């Protein structure tokens, strides 16, 4: 194995781990946003509504919420957060979409 190929494999194998460790919001393999890059007011709103990057209640997640607007790759935006979220996230303001 050449040194270039070994270096490439090291990067390819460690990049996903680095992305997860940095707290990036991943949805279906896509990076929707970096929570650490959000403006302070948006970070504070997330704390006040107990925002979870990944819902712990399967029947309650952003993609099923009336305040969610989907975009691409499992990403979207939320009217309550006034910013980005992911389809699989959840907060205490969840309101089921009308059927
Ligand atoms: S209100 Fe909460 S559950 Fe609904 S889309 Fe926004 S963050 Fe997700």
Could you explain how this protein is built, in words?
The protein is of the alpha+beta class and 99 residues long. The protein has two helices and five strands. The strands form two sheets. It has a three-stranded antiparallel beta sheet with strand order 3-4-5, with no helix packed on it. A hairpin with a 4-residue loop joins strand 3 and strand 4. The protein starts with a helix and ends in a 13-residue tail after the last strand. The structure holds iron/sulfur cluster (SF4). The site of iron/sulfur cluster has 14 residues, from loops. Iron/sulfur cluster (SF4) binds next to loops.
Q: How confident overall, as mean pLDDT?
A: 82
- Based on CA atoms alone, the radius of gyration comes out at 16 Å
Order of strands, main sheet, comes to 3-4-5
Task: Let me know the largest β-sheet.
Answer: 3 strands, antiparallel
Write down how many β-strands occur, each being a DSSP E stretch of 2 or more residues.
Answer: 5
Q: What is the approximate shape?
A: globular
What structural category do the secondary elements indicate?
alpha+beta
Terminal Cα span: 56 Å
Summary of the model, kept short:
With 99 residues, the chain is α+β, with helices and mostly antiparallel strands. The protein contains two helices and five strands, in the order αββαβββ.
Which helices and strands occur, and which strands form pairs?
Elements: H1 3-21, E1 25-27, E2 30-33, H2 40-48, E3 68-70, E4 75-78, E5 83-86
Antiparallel strand pairs: 1-2, 3-4, 4-5
Iron/sulfur cluster (SF4) binds next to loops.
